[in-house]
Amino acid sequence: MGSMTLYVEKNSLIHHLDPLVKLLYVAASIALTYILPEPLFIAGVLFITFLLLVVGKVFRNSLPIVALSMVLIFSLVIVQGFFHPDNATELFAIGPVVFYEEGLTVALGLVLRVLVMVGAFSVLILTTRPDEMVERLIKKGMSPKIGHVILSVLQLIPQMRATMGKITDAQRSRGMETEGKLLVRIKAFFPLIGPVVLNSLNETKERSIALEMRGFDAPGKKTFLNEEKIYPYNKQFAGMLVIIILLAIVWRVIG
Amino acid sequence: MKTFTVREVDFSYSPIIPIFQGLTIDFDSRTTALVGQNGAGKTTLVKLMKGLLKPDKGELLVDGKSISEQTAAQLAKRMGLVFQNPNDQVFKTNVLDEVMFGPLNIGFSKREAEKQAMNALRKVALESKVAENPYDLSLSERKLIALASILAMDTEMVIFDEPTMGQDFAGKEKIKAIIQELKAEGKLVICILHDMDFAAEVFERTIVLNQGKVILDDETREVFSEKEVLEKAFLEQPSVSQIAHALGFEKSFIHEAELIQFLKDVQRLNPDLS
């Protein structure tokens, strides 16, 4: 059973980075776009983020995610370009709809920022196995319970999909039409929801019982199955990110 | 329905690992046991026959007519499949609804469906549980509910996937009676089994599947006398055959009664043996 993860198995520099450093990069890059909200500067951060995606060999995989965020981006451009309160200079008009320069500048900044967010999260998600990240966080002191919640959520969808397949088979084999026209499929979908959701909850409950049987909640220090990976230049990368943020704050305050 | 033919069927779940290549089997009115080690392709075969999976190549024919164009739901009127794991099949919140689901789908009126359902439940001796939630029943009871829900559809062909798994003696006797009744009604019965004793006792014909290929297909007695071939497929003979073999008898035995009768005859001829 697969897990609902966007992780792409590749061998790259970025894949070998500490998940925590990547998490820090997400935080840092987003923070930077707020500390220094100049479009040109955000574009720089965006460039570096995309560069990381390329180095991580996952640029192509990030495109669908970026495309999905286009809906949000598109609405930002329209709303800001159209309605921003500072709008004064008319730039162009499509029929009765007038776009203003001020609004579009604001929109440009926002769009770049959204892209940075999407890009930075893509770097993290596409190059990091979820269980590796959760294990790393638990080692750093996060509660194993929260870790379990994160991982079971990731498993819930594929698990539901599997249950759905089984129940659909059961229904089909007893004469319920589930193939063919859209209407037929929609009709077949509703009786599925109940059992699928209930079954998934049941399975999740059973899994937690199984975990409990093996002492998940037992007090005391836990050991880990996987040996701690050694991430090269871990401290250096983290330090660099912190310094960059500090420099950016200083620049903002002075400048 | 008189025959069901699987002709030259190719199938694979992933392009790298073929499951069936040019598989051909003719099922007829003889009750048929389908045996083979885990992963031999038994369940895949019945899912193909039921239309739940589509073959990559080849044809499925009922009485010589192709059913490849029909959906699983259309086929449901003619053939029933009892799943191996009842949890994959049971999804209603009470036993009666569960058993009535099939008949209602294939066009029975509510009253007929209920009558059919009650009849089927009586056959598995669970008519007292109509109002219960299937999930409150034990696994073996749930298996019988799943069986009843197919019986209630009164199809011309019934396929069982491992019906005896987890059943006690009484449960097995019920299943045996049901299979014989279906046979008497002139229906096609096919049954996937791991229980060789049950296969030998109940079925007229046995097919041994190994790695997607039919390696034995004959009268049950003939199949179970092929000790070496069975062992190659990691199967054992029924216990009666094993005992007879251990005693050094040449003749093949597949029913307890046969061996008992034989031993009695031997005893009668040599009274000093006892």
Entry keywords:
heterodimer; A: 255 residues; mainly alpha; two-stranded antiparallel ribbon; 8 helices; 2 strands; 4% strand; B: 274 residues; alpha/beta; 6-stranded mixed sheet; 4-stranded antiparallel sheet; 22% strand; globular
Question: How would you explain this protein's 3D organization?
Answer:
The complex is a heterodimer of chains A (255) and B (274). Chain A is mainly alpha-helical and 255 residues long. Chain A is built from 8 helices and 2 strands. Chain A has 2 domains: 142 residues, no CATH class; 71 residues, no CATH class. Chain A has a two-stranded antiparallel sheet. The relative contact order of chain A is 0.14. Chain B has a domain of 37 residues. Chain B is built from 11 helices and 10 strands. Chain B has a 6-stranded mixed β-sheet, with helices on both faces. Chain B has a 4-stranded antiparallel β-sheet with strand order 2-1-4-5, with no helix packed on it. In chain B, β1 and β2 form a beta hairpin. The radius of gyration of chain B is 20 Å and the shape is globular. The model of chain B has no long low-confidence stretch (mean pLDDT 90). The chains are: A mainly alpha (255), B alpha/beta (274). Chains A and B meet through α6 of A and α2 and α3 of B.
Give a summary of the structure in a few sentences.
The complex is a heterodimer of chains A (255) and B (274). Chain A contains 8 helices and 2 strands. With 255 residues, chain A is mostly helical.
Write the layout of secondary structure elements.
The complex is a heterodimer of chains A (255) and B (274).
Chain A: H1 19-35, H2 39-55, H3 59-83, E1 90-94, E2 97-100, H4 101-127, H5 130-139, H6 144-172, H7 182-213, H8 234-254
Antiparallel strand pairs in A: 1-2
Helix pairs in contact in A: 1-4, 1-8, 2-4, 3-4, 5-6, 6-7
Chain B: E1 4-14, E2 17-27, E3 32-35, H1 42-49, E4 57-62, E5 65-66, H2 72-75, E6 79-82, H3 95-105, H4 110-123, H5 139-151, E7 157-161, H6 169-184, E8 188-192, H7 196-202, E9 205-210, E10 213-219, H8 220-225, H9 227-232, H10 239-246, H11 256-269
Parallel strand pairs in B: 3-8, 3-9, 6-7, 7-8
Antiparallel strand pairs in B: 1-2, 1-4, 4-5, 9-10
